[in-house]
Amino acid sequence: MNPDEIIDAGQEPGHLEERVSDPGVARPLLTLSRTLGVRYASVVATVITVIVALLTANSMRLLDRNLLQHENERIAELRLLINAAVASHLAENELHYIRAELSSIRLDGGFLYLALLDRDQRVLLLEGWPSDKPLPPRVERIDAIPEEGRVIDTFVTLTHAGRVHGYVMFGLAADKLRAAHLQMLWQSFVIGLIAIVVAALATLLVSRLVTRELRALHRAATAVGRGEVETRLPVRRFDEIGELTLAFNRMTQALGDRMRALTKSEARFHAIADYTYAVEAWFNPGGKLIWINRSIERITGYTALECVLAADLMQLLVYPKDRRAAQEAFVHALNGRVAENFEVRVQRKDGSVIWAALNWQPIFGADGEDLGLRVSADDVSSRKQAEIKLLDTVVDLRREQSLKEYYLKRSEDERFRLAALLDVLRLGILFVGKDERIVYTNRAFGRVWGFPEDENFAGMRDSVLLDRQDGVLAGGAAFRRHVEEVIASHDASAPFEIELRDGRVLSGVSAVVSGQSPTLHIGRVWAFEDVTEQRRIAEQLIHMAERDPLTSLFNRRRFHEELERNIAEAARRHTELGVLVMDLDGFKPINDEFGHHAGDQVLVTIAREVGGIVRRNEMFFRLGGDEFAVMTPESSEFEMVGLARRVANRIGELRFTFGSGRVSRLTASIGIALYPVHADDGEQLVAHADSAMYQAKAAGKNHWRIYRDPSRA
C-alpha cells in the first residue's frame, strides 16, 4: 500500500475522516483490520514484550553512547581551553597568573576542582580541592556512565611550543549524565508499559488504531513542515504502517542531523569570521554591505551595526581625498575583478586617519550564482609610516654618499701617509680590531720581535700571534696573562717590559683606539720598543749609585735609604731593627806599610768572607774606608749578638800574606744598636751603634758591644 494513497500531506486532519468514510477506502481498511486483529491476538503476549525490551535496551545503549561521546567531546574542548589559558604561563613560571586563570576557569566551566601539576606530577596549585587530601586516580576518557555520586576525574597535558610543561587535573560532576540515563530508563519503561497496554487493546481497536496512527503520522509530517525536525513517532507495528513510521523517523532523523550540522557550520563560520583579526565584510551584488565582523570597531571605532546601517559607507569611512579612487576600485571589484593590497586612508570615528590595505574577491554559489563581494581590510599604518621614513632615509643616504666618497679618498691619502710614517719609526706598531684580528703592523714590528720584516700579519687572529710570540719570550705565560688583563681593562695600559729568550728587553704600551665617538672602540694599538741598551745603561748607573766600586757592597747612600725604609716598616709592624757597625783593627798600618793596593785587597777579602756568612734577610754595607755595617730587620738583641760573634770570629780566622811574605791578621771592633730599644730614628740609631763600636775599641779592640745609655750606667 502506497502511503500517498492513504493521506495527502497537504490536507488538514479533518479531510482524513472524509476519505475514510468513502466505501472505496473503508473496504480495504476493514480487511486490514481483520488481518491485524488475528496477528495481534496471537502474538500480543510475547512479541510486543520482546520488541519493547529490545527497543528499550537499544535506546539505552544508543543514549549511553551519545551521552558518553558528548561528554568526552566536552572534556576535549575543556582541555583545549585549559591548555590555551595555562600552558604559556606555566612555561614562563608565572604561577600568580595561572592561579587567577584556574579560579576563573573553575567558576565559568563548572569544575568541581582544578589541580596544577609540574612535569614530575608534583602539585603546584589547587582550586576546590583540600591541600591535605591526595588527588584521586584520573582517566583519559569516559567509557561508561558513572555511578551515582561519582565524579569524573580526568586531566589535560599542558604543552607549549612542542614541549610538555605540566598537567592540570580536574573533576566534573557526573550527575547530569546519571540523571539523563535514569530519565531515559524511566521513559523507556513507561513507553514500554504503554506499548504493552496499547498492544493489548490493539486487538480490539485495530481499525481505529490504524486510523489514529495515520493521523499521528500526518500531524508529525505537518510539524516537520513547520520546522520541528526533531519530531519522532513511536513504532508500535511491524506491518506496512510500521515501516512507513520507521521511514518517517529515518527521514526526520536525517533531516535533523543535516539541520544540526548546518547550524554548527554556520556557528563555526560566525565564530571564525567575527573574531578574525583583520576586517572581513560581505557586500551583495548591488554593493550594499550585508555583513561585517567586529574587527571594524577596533580599526575605525564604528560598530558593525553602524556600518551595516550606514546610508553611504564610503562617505562614512574613506578619507575625502581617497573616495574617488576607492569608489572606482569598488566598482571594478563588483564587476568581478580581484584586487590585492589596495591602499586607502580610512577616517576613524574620533577623526584620526589611518592607512588600510584592502583585498577583495567575488563570491559565487555552487550553481555559479553571483553572491556578491568579499572584502578584507587590515591596518597598515605602521608599515606605511615606515615606508615614508625609509624614503626620507634613502634621500639622506644619497646626499651623504657623495660626502663619504670625498672623505674616503682623503682618508685613503691620510692612511698612506700614516703608514709611511710608522714604517720609519723604531717602534713596532700593532693594530688589532674588535674582531680580535690584526689590522696593521709596520716593518719595525717584525724587526723588534725577531720576525721577518716583510711578513704580512694582516687578518691573522691575535691568539695566533701570541702563540708565535711564545716562541721568542722568556716568560710566555706571564706575558699572555698581562695581555689578557690589558684587553679586559678596556683602557690604556701602563708601560711594561718583556724579556726575550735572546736576552733582549722590549718595552710595550697599549691603548684603546676610539672611533667616531669616544665611547665607540674600534680596536686596540700596541707599541713595542727594544730597550735592551737603555736598560743595561740604567742598571749600570743604578749599580754605580748604590754599590761600592771596590767591594761591590751596598754603599753609604743605599745604607741610609734602607735604614729609613726599614725603620718605617718596623714602626708599622711593631718589630725591632738591628744595626751592626764594625771597624777593622790594625788596618791603617797595613795600608801605610804595604800600600793602598794591599789595603784594597784586605777590604775585598773582608767583604767576600763576611758577605758569605750574612744571612738572606741581612744586608751588608761598606760605609767608607774600613768601616762596614750590617742591617737586620725583625731582629732581637740575642740575634744581633750571634751575628756579631759570627762576624768577629770569621774576621779573626782570616790570614793575609803580603809581598815580603809577611803574614798578618786583623780583628774588628763591633757596635750594636736596635730600634726602637736604643733610638727613635735612623740618625740616632747609627750614632748609638757608632758609640757602641767605640766602646768596643776602648775595651781593647776585637770586641763587640751593645749600646748602653751612659746616663743609666
UniProtKB/TrEMBL annotation:
Domain PAC: 340-392
Protein's UniProt keywords contain Cell inner membrane: no
GO molecular function terms attached to this record: catalytic activity
Pfam families (alphabetical): GGDEF, HAMP, PAS_3, PAS_7
PAS domain mapped to chain residues: 287-337
Cross-referenced InterPro entries: Biofilm_reg_signaling (IPR052155), GGDEF_dom (IPR000160), HAMP_dom (IPR003660), Nucleotide_cyclase (IPR029787), PAC (IPR001610), PAS (IPR000014), PAS-assoc_C (IPR000700), PAS-like_dom_sf (IPR035965)
Entry keyword Cytoplasm: no
CDD domains in alphabetical order: GGDEF (cd01949), HAMP (cd06225), PAS (cd00130)
Domain spans labelled HAMP: 208-260
TM annotation in the entry: 37-57, 185-206
Gene3D superfamilies documented for this protein: 3.30.70.270, 6.10.340.10, PAS domain
NCBIfam families documented for this protein: GGDEF, sensory_box
PANTHER family, alphabetized: BIOFILM ARCHITECTURE MAINTENANCE PROTEIN MBAA, DIGUANYLATE CYCLASE DGCP
Name listed for the protein in its UniProt record: Diguanylate cyclase
Native source species: Candidatus Methylophosphatis roskildensis
